Give the backbone structure.
Amino acid sequence: MNIFDGHNDILNKITNSEKPTNTRAFLSEGRGHLDLPRAIQGGMVGGFFAVYPSNPPSLPSAEDRTFLRADGYEVIMAPALEYAVAHQAALDMITLMEQIEADSSGDLEIIKDSQQLENCLEKKIFAAVLHLEGAEPIQPDLDNLPDFFELGMRSLGITWSRPNAFGHGVPFKFPSSPDTGPGLTDAGKELVKACNELGIMIDLAHLNEKGFWDVAGISSSPLVSSHTAANGLTAKARNLTDDQLKAVAESNGLAGIIFSVNDLDAEIKPKDDAPISTIIDHIIYITELIGVDHVAFGSDFDGTRIPSELGDARGFPKLVTLLDKAGFSDSDQEKICYQNWIRVLKECWTK
Ligand SMILES: [Zn+2]
């Protein structure tokens, strides 16, 4: 089964390693959740690569910022990032992605349009979509947005789980709805329109609920959350409510299901592990609510803790087997595994 995955953090992981320009860490080395050989073994034909400017090293870890309550927990939100720092970090990660492409001997391409995407699928060239996770590297007047488009960025998350000039991220919190703060700023509303015009997919993962509805009111493209889950099943603040999921479906959009053990299971404390069946539970819930055309995978490989049963990117066939056991037809499995992502990308990229 072909797999197209909605989110990974390999670029950030390599960037924060001892050798931040080591392309072999993706092309051959085999640590963490994801590299090209294991992706191909798992059936992956492509996916989104996050350009995620990290929190400053001086910030205490998420674990140290976690406060437990009687009925749940909250991670104290990271502060806003400085533009210059975020901008340089993004350029460095894009350079790393370009170097991975150059060193791949033609096995991987950074995809910039629908035709190139089709061509890669046909020729079995790994299709990498450059995704900016948090718009901090974009100037609030949007002057440099076209530069990022030129560099190949075709997907943009307005916020990570922190505030920025464009909107407000949703905290890591349980139990909670995603309605945790104000909506988009004026700059954020302009960013949505500019992305529509350029043909950049807008990603709503990590954005709070008011921001989500602002995008829904403005955007002419499908509503997409690349790595999330169902709040109705697991009341984590960053999971989508039923009403949000219905809006996703009405826009012909997509929810990519995250593999993070923290987001899948309703537990009072952040979790160490979860069975892979929890991923299928969220897919079933969303399919029953809005249909099979609007759900896909959004692993978050190398950015979170995933079920040990899944292991790494080679675990996708286990999920396909579970989809089969759950009664999804062959054509429904193909939609969930890759066709939904291909459909939505093509629609978002049509100017
Ligand atoms: Zn993320």
Observations:
- The chain is about 40% helix and 15% strand.
- The first strand starts at residue 3 and ends at 8.
- The first helix runs from residue 10 to 15.
